[in-house]
Design brief:
Number of strands: 7
Keywords: Lyase
CATH architecture: 3-Layer(aba) Sandwich
Catalytic activity: dihydroxyacetone phosphate = methylglyoxal + phosphate
Structural class: alpha/beta
Distance between the termini: 15 Å
GO biological process, one term: methylglyoxal biosynthetic process
Strand content: 15-25%
Shape: globular
Organism: Pseudoalteromonas phenolica
Pfam families: MGS
Radius of gyration: 16 Å
Strand order of the largest sheet: 4-3-2-5-6
Number of domains: 1
């Protein structure tokens, strides 16, 4: 599939997700980076969003809980180019009943070429990147061109 270039704005829309065993770690990370996060738009799966909002006072757009469809809601927002970065503290040592949803969310983040952090170290690196506060370009699939070629064959 051909690609096109799209800008990610300086004000990022950041998705926040954490498995139950990692919610405290994400809460602590958000508290440590509250001053930076408050300059961006935040969305989260329901339970995670509530934990972050209560602990930090940050404004978080809360979707459904992950297993109830929140992971899929975030995936749709990624596919619609509404999410610019995903911070997903997943627990690699615990099985998840909604593992297919988790894999679909991570797959969509890769397809649409958005930065993804799955642990504190990577999340720190992304947040401290000079690109965090500036507009930058990314390559992504040119789905409109793909459709046009399929309709003409």
């Amino acid at each position: 599939m051909e690609t096109k270039v799209e800008k990610i704005p300086a004000n990022k829309h950041i998705a926040l997700v954490a498995h139950d065993g990692k919610k405290d770690a994400l809460k602590a990370w958000c508290l440590a980076h509250k001053n930076t996060l408050e300059r961006h738009t935040l969305s989260a799966t329901g339970t995670t969003g509530n934990v972050i909002e209560q602990a930090t006072g940050l404004n978080v757009n809360k979707l459904l809980s992950g297993p109830m469809g929140g992971d899929q809601q975030l995936g749709a927002k990624i596919a619609e180019h509404q999410i610019h970065m995903l911070v997903f503290f997943w627990d690699p040592l615990a099985s998840q009943p909604h593992d297919p949803d988790v894999k679909a969310l991570l797959r969509l983040a890769a397809v649409w070429n958005i930065p993804v952090a799955c642990n504190e170290a990577t999340a720190d690196m992304l947040l401290h990147s000079s690109l965090m506060s500036t507009e930058f370009s990314r390559a992504l699939p040119d789905y409109d061109k793909y459709l046009a070629t399929r309709l003409n064959t």
